[in-house]
Design a protein that fits this description.
- It is built from 21 helices and no strands.
Length: 529
């Protein structure tokens, strides 16, 4: 649909109807205008009668120019010139008044009711008397300058918000720019909203198309520049996991502000601003999906052999991924919108069997990333030559994963079935550690009245002492799991050793009492790394 130019709209002063009736005669109007101009005080407020008289002069001027008066042509021309000259002077004074009121209006339009009402009356008169272009031009110039000053004070530099500048910035500097953008975006949109409200109040008698066009001229360039920033960042930023949350923050902020943007810029000629906001959201979505893929790839590429941790402790990769996912879960709503467009791939067969809460794209994506992580942890566990230590490493890492999930929103995203299934796996790893680490030692304990009791006892003492030394750096990170393992090892060794000890300690030199064995196990599993 074609949009009528603002100049054409303003060229029809008869479309701007004054609400107040004109009651005085033309001579009274001339007297009021002449008196006001001759006694002009630039610091005084305007008089309603002056505005009314000015409007009356314009109406009379139109009447004289169109009517076939009985007066001579020269007399009528003289009166036309006189009224036109007086009207010009009146408009000059009204322009000064209008400018003064606009200077007085702050960015918080709600606190400037009187100033706005006065400016509205002046604008109404100027529009109705054929001086709409002058009025609107002054208004646009002043309010555009005011809006630009506000954005500068907020910290938005329009000159640096260009693609050729942004793509050359180092990440540390760009990161600060992104944070600044997300911090000031609500205030910038609020400033535009205030301008939108002010424009519609000042030009309340004007057609909506005029108000929209005036506001668009004031705010378009700066709004477009500001809303282009997220798109520029999304397009030129090289995807890497550490940049995801800045992108998500921009997406969330822009999504939250979109209703206000649509309200202000939803109709012509300002539709391009709304379109830019939508385009920025689309480019951010693509960039975020790309970074999520990079994150998965980074886990897969983490080296296996060169990164084993001492004592089977929690691997730094596990901590990094889980902290990352826990933070990611806080963006659940936005990620549902963003990830919904992910194309199907080879993961689909895995997802069909995944035991997830709702099968949403977010739960599926997080479950897949966890699957990739657990596969990587399995590979790293194979680097340990001791089976007990390998199981301990698996138990430590999976237990950490489960505690992290249960302590954040990931628990809701993945669901109880997924959590219970993997909690059971963590327990099996723990049982594997106990069995592979202590079952052989338990088998060495003497059986009553066996010929090789003494020989087996000495082997047990030697292996038990050796295990305490060699395993002193082993770690069970979770206190509850550590206590369970301790009790399981005690149950495996102490009762059998205690029974044999009571039967033979009077006849055989024994290195450890049952209490010694119990204390050593307690000390061994008593502290974490």
């Amino acid at each position: 649909m074609a949009v009528t130019p603002l100049r054409d709209l303003l060229a029809e002063p008869t479309s701007f109807r004054l609400d107040h009736p004109i009651t005085q005669s033309i001579s009274q109007s001339i007297s009021i205008v002449s008196s006001t101009i001759s006694n002009w005080d630039p610091h005084s407020s305007h008089s309603p009668s002056f505005l009314q008289a000015t409007s009356h002069l314009h109406s009379h001027l139109l009447h004289l120019s169109k009517s076939a008066s009985r007066c001579s042509a020269s007399s009528r021309h003289s009166e036309l010139v006189k009224i036109h000259t007086l009207l010009e002077s009146a408009m000059q004074h009204l322009e000064e008044l209008f400018k003064r009121h606009l200077f007085s209006i702050s960015s918080d339009v709600d606190l400037q009711c009187d100033e706005i009402a006065d400016a509205c009356s002046i604008a109404e008169t100027m529009l109705a008397t054929g001086y709409g272009e002058e009025c609107v031009s002054m208004y646009q110039s002043m309010r555009r300058s005011n809006l630009k000053s506000q954005m500068v004070r907020l910290g938005f530099d329009q000159s640096s918000n260009q693609a050729k500048v942004i793509r050359k910035l180092k990440w540390e500097i760009l990161d600060r720019h992104i944070k600044s953008w997300t911090d000031i975006a609500p205030a910038v949109v609020q400033s535009c909203s205030d301008e939108h409200q002010l424009c519609h109040e000042i030009f309340a008698v004007s057609p909506e198309s005029v108000r929209n066009s005036i506001f668009f001229t004031i705010s378009c360039d700066m709004a477009l520049s500001f809303l282009t920033f997220p798109e520029t960042v999304a397009v030129y930023l090289k995807p890497s996991p550490e940049k995801l949350f800045r992108l998500l923050n921009m997406y969330v902020v822009l999504s939250d502000l979109l209703p206000d943007i649509e309200s202000m810029f939803g109709s012509e000629p300002a539709h391009s601003v709304r379109s830019q906001a939508m385009s920025s959201l689309d480019k951010l979505s693509k960039a975020i999906r790309s970074v999520v893929s990079e994150f998965e790839l980074a886990i897969q590429k983490d080296p296996v052999k060169s990164s084993a941790v001492r004592g089977g402790a929690i691997h730094p990769l596990t901590r990094y991924v889980m902290n990352y996912l826990a933070y990611l879960a806080d963006f659940e709503h936005s990620l549902h919108e963003i990830l919904i467009d992910l194309p199907p791939d080879c993961k689909s067969s895995f997802f069909e069997q995944a035991n997830l809460a709702d099968g949403s794209i977010l739960s599926v994506t997080i479950a897949w990333i966890l699957f990739v992580l657990l596969c990587k942890i399995d590979s790293k566990a194979e680097t340990y030559s001791d089976a007990a230590l390998s199981y301990l490493f698996l138990a430590n890492n999976l237990q950490y994963i489960m505690k992290k999930i249960q302590g954040c929103h990931l628990n809701m995203i993945l669901g109880d079935d997924w959590v219970n299934e993997h909690s059971t796996k963590a327990r099996r790893f723990m049982d594997g550690h106990v069995r592979s680490g202590w079952a052989d030692m338990s088998a060495l304990l003497p059986v009553h009245n066996e010929d090789d009791d003494i020989e087996r006892l000495r082997k047990f003492e030697m292996n038990f002492e050796k295990a305490m030394k060699e395993r002193k750096e082993w770690v069970i990170a979770d206190a509850a799991m550590r206590e369970e393992v301790r009790l399981a090892v005690e149950a495996m060794l102490v009762p059998m050793y205690c029974g044999w000890y009571r039967s033979h300690n009077n006849f055989v030199a024994v290195k450890f009492t049952p209490e010694d064995v119990k204390k050593r196990i307690l000390r061994f599993y008593g502290e974490s790394d």
